[in-house]
Amino acid sequence: MDVIAQGVGKVFTDPDADKARAFFRKKSRKMENKLMTVKAAVEKYVHDGDYLCIGGFGANRIPAAVCHEILRQGRKKMAFAGHTSTHDFQILCAGEVFNRLDIAYIVGLEARGLSANARKYMESGKVEVSEWTNYSLSVRFKAAAAGVSFYPSRNIMGTDTFQFSGAKIIACPFTGTKYAAMPAIYPDVSAIHVHEADIYGNCRVRGITVSDFDVARASKHLIITCERLISNEEIRRDPSLTVIPYWCVDAVCEVPYGSYPGNMLGEYFSDEEHLREWLKVEENPEEFKKFLDKNIYSCKDHFEYVEKNGGLHKMQMLRQKEMMFIGARA
Amino acid sequence: MADYNVMELMICTAARELEDGASVGVGTGAPCAAAMLSQKTHSPNLTILFEAGGAAPLIPEMPISVGDSRTTWKAVMASGMCEIMEAACRGLLDYTFLGGAQIDMYGNINSTRIGPDHQKPKVRFPGSGGANDFASFCWRMMVMTPQDPKRFAEKCQFITTPGWLQGGDSRAKSGLPLGAGPYRIITNMAVMDFEPESKRMRIIAINPGYSEKDVQTNCGFELLKAKKIVENKPPTKHELTILREQVDPYRYVIGR
Fold first, then answer.
1. What is the rounded distance in angstroms from the CA atom of residue B53 to the CA atom of residue A185?
2. The CATH number of the domain where A230 resides is what?
3. pTM of whole model > 0.95?
């Protein structure tokens, strides 16, 4: 197939479908107990240099506990998919965890403003970047989930986003229409927070799915954190509710309030006060260091972080916000 | 002095562009306010979609994130990024609203960086997010932004999101879906469209209290002028009441 044009950005992962098949051939299909702590899961499945993807949408249904643990264990030189990333990106920048980055959306927290520390890191020259878009990264995961090496899409052509991407423009063999060929991403490891899972990793999710179902299937290793463990009998009672099957999953960690300070649909709203504090404190590097020590490095787990920031009283208030008993910005 | 502010004027102007029965992909802030206002006034059957997956919600209050739970409140579906963008790529999305650090005369937008070195930018912005996707796929892309000569730049330092690219038929040749592109630029001073042949930005309406000269002075490139430039209608009492009491009672957007 002729390549009509191509971007100068690097492709940080190998899109080769047969190499991915060779990996998945060896991956366990045993339906076995995968329950472990977040600490153990990160020790076992997240390594320096790995390509990492974080599920959810920035500050909505994010595996915050895994992000914090990655910092505590001092992972470095990772590659990261900056796909709909906001608060998760902010956390990973605080630990300077990655040095290669696929960019769709970074450094901002949407309407809340920009992260001073994330910007500083991205303006330091320490991170090698390729530009993409949210949908581009979605289809790169979709390609991997389908076990193919690329996906044709009709965006980004004609722009600098294409010029600085690793995409290639090709023509359709049937119609001649131009497409941007998006190379598959098979992440080494991903983490996704869900509402319910059994000990084998069969998962249920409420609300928007972003790209998580494709990310789950594309990933070589997958850590699931869940609000609640449920029984395998409950999963089998209504299999139509299962959105991620056990064979995609390597670790299951029960982490109530696991998306905190992010939003979790039907459970609790985002802690806007705490997110504002993050953004504010980042403007002063010394204060930020103290803040990180308090909220991440000195915490033994997610419960300690939640307790330091208002505990169950705070969770009750965020639940009332989620249920619209009080306004989101109250 | 009129009893409305420029944000209220821009939101009301934008809301009028969304006709009943249309579909719109929106982000947080002013675009969401415009879509909500439109739905509560003349477009009860406006379909509002969020890139993260929220589809046709009855938005109870202004969302903070395009993926937060307000975007699926009483929605018809909680879907995902591909569901929304694929619908747009199939040609089902009529409108989108975008913004950015720079916009040029062809409606191209920069939300990526300032400075020449891509690996070490002087200023790093968030990047495309879903903006390039929506601008590539939605039939009519609109921008709502305050106007100044730095933002309305002769040349974007980085084209994150496609407008009419280099003008003329350059967008059609690029491979992007045919017939889609920038439609309206709504500022605190004026409303612009794009001249059909050259695809250059053109003044079509001026807001009360501003002149053609103000609009040109606050723009970093030469604007074309429509044969007939009208005065943009100020917000009606009805629009302002709905906007202030139902859409944004805490003035998160209109208080800016």
1. 21
2. 3.40.1080.10
3. yes
